[in-house]
Write a structure and sequence with these properties.
By secondary structure, the protein is of the alpha+beta class. Helix content is 41%, strand content 15%.
Length: 309
């Protein structure tokens, strides 16, 4: 089955190499139901692009809520906390792209550095008018076609077309018409603003009383409404945000675990160790040691059809 704008076949997937390789692509064409919504935001070690193909959904990025329409392009850089909220009812179709690539090619370092600035946009979501959309998506449709024709240079062709896709996003970034819409009650909007504030200030002391004063709402009302909107208590959300950032530092830095605990806002190592164990089922040191093993994935091939769970 093919969309009029973007090629699509339910359950189809395209792989080039695997996670952890310096060059890696995984394009997943499938549906995602409301029942599979994640409980809390997560992060990846690779880049991720989400393109919704029908219905609507929402992305929560670093605690901020972004409404998505069909063919919106969500760009997520590594280590960015996020989750998608899919609506109830028929599961929306979407294309999810996970990838990584080397950018230290001699003579092209500056160009690649500039190209990837699109992932650092203040609002990392692109929306284009119909005619421009067809042009932007053309390289992805080419990748879909290339994946179904075996060739010794298939992986090279896919890489070439994907870089062309990124170049199109960069070239037409000024035409991005996405505007963040404030939906829901003013109190709901305020709770998401508080969640975003937590993500920006998790390294500092964050108390219910201090945040309630900053956002001009009583501590009791904030506590009740925050739990209602996010599904977590204020304290749980602060702790989970700190732990997710600590996980990233454990993976990608060699800093002492005690220093990581302090930098992530914990007042004592024993508190950090206890909460980390509770959320991850292992100590911070065990998490750091086990991470490489967790990254090992089964090797799959370009054009494989499979079901995602």
């Amino acid at each position: 089955m093919t969309s009029s704008v973007l090629a699509y076949e339910k359950g189809y997937a395209i792989h080039v190499n695997q996670p952890g390789d310096s060059l890696y692509y995984y394009l997943d064409y499938d549906e995602r139901s409301h029942d599979l919504n994640m409980e809390f935001q997560h992060f990846h070690d690779f880049y991720e692009i989400c393109i919704l193909l029908d219905r609507t959904a929402a992305h929560i990025i670093e605690g901020s809520l972004y409404e998505m329409q069909p063919y919106d392009i969500v760009l997520l850089r590594p280590a960015l906390l996020h989750k998608t909220q899919y609506p109830k009812g028929l599961p929306p179709k979407r294309l999810m792209i996970n990838f990584d690539m080397p950018r230290s090619i001699p003579g092209l370092e500056n160009g690649y550095s500039e190209l990837f600035t699109i992932f650092n946009a203040e609002v990392p979501i692109f929306r284009f008018p119909e005619e421009r959309r067809k042009e932007v998506f053309a390289p992805l449709n080419d990748i879909f076609a290339i994946s179904q024709q075996l060739s010794p240079i298939q992986s090279v062709a896919i890489h070439h077309k994907f870089v062309e896709f990124l170049c199109g996003l960069h070239r037409y970034a000024a035409e991005n018409s996405y505007v963040r819409e404030e939906k829901g009650s003013s109190m709901t909007q305020r709770m998401y603003a508080i969640a975003s504030y937590i993500h920006s200030h998790y390294q500092q002391e964050l108390s219910l009383d201090e945040v309630s004063r900053r956002f001009y709402v009583s501590a009791h009302h904030l506590s009740r409404q925050f739990n209602k909107v996010t599904g977590f208590t204020f304290t749980e959300y602060v702790q989970m945000t700190r732990i997710r950032n600590a996980q990233q530092m454990l993976i990608h830095s060699s800093e002492k675990i005690t220093d990581i605990a302090t930098q992530c806002g914990f007042t004592s190592f024993s508190q950090f160790n206890r909460i980390f164990n509770k959320q991850n089922g292992m100590s911070p040191s065990a998490y750091r040691r086990s991470r490489p093993a967790q990254d090992e994935r089964e090797m799959v091939y370009v054009g494989e059809r499979h079901k995602m769970t």
